[in-house]
Amino acid sequence: MSSLLTNTSAMTALASLTQTQNNLSKTESQISTGLRISSASDNPAYWSIATKMSSNVGALGAVNDALSESSALVSTMSSALNSTISVVTAIKNDLTTASNAGADLSKIQTDIAAQQASLLSIGSSANFNGLNFLETTGGTVNLVASYDSTNGVSFLSVDTSQTALFNATTGATTGILGASGANYTTASILSLNITTATAGDLSNMLKDVEKAISSITTAASTLGATTTNLSTQQTYISNLSDSLTTGVGSLVDANMNEAATKLAALQVQQQLGIQALSISNSNSQLILKLFQ
Questions:
Q1: Reduced to 3 states, what is the DSSP secondary structure of residue 109?
Q2: Which stretches make up the Flagellin C-terminal domain (predicted)?
Q3: Do the beta carbons of residue 44 and residue 200 sit within 8 Å?
Q4: How many C-beta neighbours within 10 Å does residue 171 have?
Q5: Are 287 and 6 in contact (CB under 8 A)?
Q6: pLDDT band at 270; cut points 50, 70, 90
Q7: What Rg, from alpha-carbon coordinates, does the chain have?
Q8: Residue (of 145, 139, 83) closest to 115 by Cα position
Q9: For residues 205 and 235, is the Cβ–Cβ distance under 8 A?
């Protein structure tokens, strides 16, 4: 039935055009943002899951940065310990030479003194971001190791009392090289002097040096294991972060090929809808012509 007051066909055409324009707006938004779900209103469940996963990805990124810093720290200390082993081995060789009959102890002591200065330099300069495992009073240093949303951040502990070579603090417990006191006054590898040493003295010194080399090697091995652990964690965290990122993408990313095809179809629908609405609105004019 034709009516001047109620144009049913126009109302239907308008409703269809409005729906088409809404769909067109959503599709254009997907293409511009690359996201199928960009807000909670698009899909509350998926948006909530993706938001939590994205938050975890951010936390894992921070943990990975901390792991990189920890790896650099431990690598610095390991390198210093390896250099220390070489220097202490040189002192061992000097002591062995000094044990030979007729050896010039004074000249050999000059070389030993140079090696002792090198040990102090190596230990004191092994500083990374304010931390030094070699010149220290000891204690535990916690390095960030991992993260999960349930338990939070976990740590890897390093006992620096096992890596300390010496300690400049007065009255402090001696380190691997047996040095303590403000001026390293306690008898130690850093203060040994063979100028007037007897054969017995040299024998005891060699034993102390052998013990020091063994302790330093153990400390270096411990840090090596720590480096391996940190590297393993870095790989795991990176892989986990990639997996979560992929998961987030599968939930919220738009299929750009599909969106582009849909956009073209909706643009055609919009044009047809406008034409349909125009035709429906013209029906009222046709009815009026019947009375002219």
A1: helix
A2: 207-291
A3: no
A4: 8
A5: no
A6: confident
A7: 38
A8: 83
A9: no
Give me the torsion for CA of 26, 27, 33, 36, rounded to 10°.
80
| Residue 50, CB-side half-sphere exposure with 13 Å CA sphere | 20
Structure token pair of residue 123: 């230990």
Tens of pLDDT along 220-267?
999 999 999 999 999 989 999 999 988 888 887 776 777 777 767 777
More confident residue, 279 or 67: 67
Sign of CA dihedral 181, 182, 185, 191: positive
Owner of token pair 């102390």: 208
Q: What is the DSSP letter of 189?
A: T
What token pair was written down for 188? 């130690």
Query: Between the CA atoms of 142, 144, 145 and 148, what dihedral angle is there, to the nearest 10 degrees?
Result: 130
Tokens representing 92 are 């061992």
Cα angle 221-223-226, degrees, rounded to a multiple of 5: 115
Residue 266's Cβ-count burial label (10 Å; 0-12, 13-18, 19+) is buried
Per-residue pLDDT tens for 191-210? 889 999 899 889 888 988 99
Of 51, 46, 54, the residue nearest 251 (C-alpha): 46
Q: Measuring CA to CA, how many Å separate 76 from each of 15, 42, 168, 190, 232?
A: 70, 50, 20, 22, 18
Domain locations along the chain: 8-34+254-289, 59-251
> Angle between the 199-252 and 44-98 helix axes, to the nearest 10 degrees?
170
Which of these, 128, 119, 218, 223, lies nearest to 166 by C-alpha position? 119
User: Which residues does residue 276 pair with via DSSP β-bridges, in sequence order?
Assistant: none
Upper half-sphere CA count for residue 148 (Cβ side, 13 Å): 5
CATH architecture under which domain 59-251 falls:
Up-down Bundle (1.20)
